[in-house]
């Protein structure tokens, strides 16, 4: 569990940001976990086709991507050319420290790819320029053709969460980023397979991603960059229908108001057992919550 204590200043400075390179960073971080997904196969094909040896090294050895590959947007909507320039001109000491951390990431029987180590030995400046060049080619082939649709979904997510913040406060947004996040008493808890406690006084950056499967937490040990959260963007009704199927999607859309299994069965002319099955799947996926009042159990969209 990661716990992030946010000061009043950090909460007052909280903002959203959209970043093309952070979306690519999500690919590098989660490709192994989702390697059978269509987007993961397309990413791998792009890397192989263009012989992107450094990105191949990060793809094959998931778990840590150097921060300088994902410069945080200074404004709301980052420009990919500016982001690539920031990567290419990253400070040599930053490149050295962060790639050294990646090299040490796994020990023993899992050595880092030789092309990455060889290029690193040629100098941090050359390494940074080569990474920026590979990111540019990956962007042009993999993400640029999709960016218009991706950007629309990211914008829609921010718009919806901004409305939640206006109605219910920022805490409702933070607690609702994912089934694995909880906001309570000024502390954000993110369910991850390791423990860490952080206090943030400067700010908080929220970054939606169409490919993230969980909430990722970025913490700068030097305190230069604010804590940033990369979280799964909300799906539109069309996206949900494609992923969930017609029946489950219809039930989910009808759960803005809490309803029982019997109520849903009657409203949609379904057998109670069918409704119960779909609600169970939605609940396990964290897409609905349930509460009991006497003998009645009511479900609501999370």
Structure description:
- The strands form three sheets. The protein has a four-stranded mixed β-sheet with strand order 3-4-1-5.
- The chain has 14 helices and ten strands.
- The protein folds into two domains: 2-232, no CATH class; 237-301, Winged helix-like DNA-binding domain superfamily/Winged helix DNA-binding domain (Arc Repressor Mutant, subunit A, Orthogonal Bundle).
- α5 (80-88) packs antiparallel against α8 and α12 (246-253) crosses α14.
- By secondary structure, it is of the alpha/beta class.
- It starts with a strand and ends with a strand.
- β9 and β10 (296-301) form a beta hairpin.
- Helices cover 50% and strands 16% of the residues.
- It has helices spanning 8-12, 20-30, 38-49, 53-60, 80-88, 92-103, 114-121, 124-143, 147-168, 170-175, 237-244, 246-253, 261-268, 272-284; strands spanning 2-6, 15-16, 181-184, 187-190, 196-200, 204-209, 216-218, 227-232, 288-293, 296-301.
Outline:
The protein is α/β, with parallel strands linked by helices and 302 residues long. It is 50% helix and 16% strand.
Tally the structural domains.
Answer: 2
Structural class: alpha/beta
Q: What is the assembly state of the chains in this entry?
A: single chain
Mean pLDDT: 85
Rg from C-alpha positions?
Answer: 21 Å
Strand order of the largest sheet: 3-4-1-5
Residue runs with pLDDT of under 50 for 5 or more positions: none
H/E element order: EHEHHHHHHHHHEEEEEEHHHHEE
Number of strands: 10
| Major β-sheet annotation | 4 strands, mixed
The number of distinct helices, counting runs of at least 4 residues, comes to 14
Query: Which bin fits the share of residues in helices?
Result: 40-55%
Q: Shape, please?
A: globular
């Amino acid at each position: 569990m990661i716990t992030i204590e946010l000061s009043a200043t950090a909460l007052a400075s909280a903002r959203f940001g959209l970043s093309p390179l952070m979306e690519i960073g999500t690919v590098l971080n989660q490709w192994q976990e989702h390697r059978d997904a269509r987007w993961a196969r397309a990413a791998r094909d792009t890397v192989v086709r263009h012989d992107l040896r450094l990105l191949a090294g990060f793809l094959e050895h998931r778990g840590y991507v150097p921060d300088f590959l994902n410069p945080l947007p200074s404004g709301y909507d980052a420009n990919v050319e500016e982001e690539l320039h920031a990567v290419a001109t990253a400070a040599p000491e930053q490149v050295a420290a962060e790639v050294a951390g990646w090299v040490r990431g796994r020990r023993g029987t899992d050595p880092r790819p030789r092309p990455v180590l060889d290029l690193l030995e040629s100098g941090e400046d050359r390494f940074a320029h080569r990474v920026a060049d590979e990111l540019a080619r990956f962007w042009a082939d993999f993400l640029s053709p999709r960016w218009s649709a991706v950007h629309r979904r990211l914008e829609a997510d921010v718009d919806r969460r901004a409305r939640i913040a206006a109605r219910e406060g920022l805490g409702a947004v933070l607690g609702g980023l994912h089934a694995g996040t909880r906001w309570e008493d000024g502390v954000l808890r993110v369910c991850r397979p390791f423990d860490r406690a952080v206090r943030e006084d400067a700010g908080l950056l929220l970054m939606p991603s169409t490919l993230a499967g969980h909430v990722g937490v970025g913490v700068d040990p030097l305190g230069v960059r604010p804590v940033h959260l990369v979280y799964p963007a909300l799906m539109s009704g069309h996206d949900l229908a494609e992923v969930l199927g017609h029946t489950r999607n219809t039930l989910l859309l009808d759960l803005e108001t809490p309803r029982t299994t019997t109520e849903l069965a009657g409203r949609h002319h379904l057998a109670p057992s069918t409704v119960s099955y779909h609600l169970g799947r939605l609940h396990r996926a964290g897409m609905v919550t349930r509460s009991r009042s006497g003998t009645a159990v009511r479900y609501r969209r999370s």
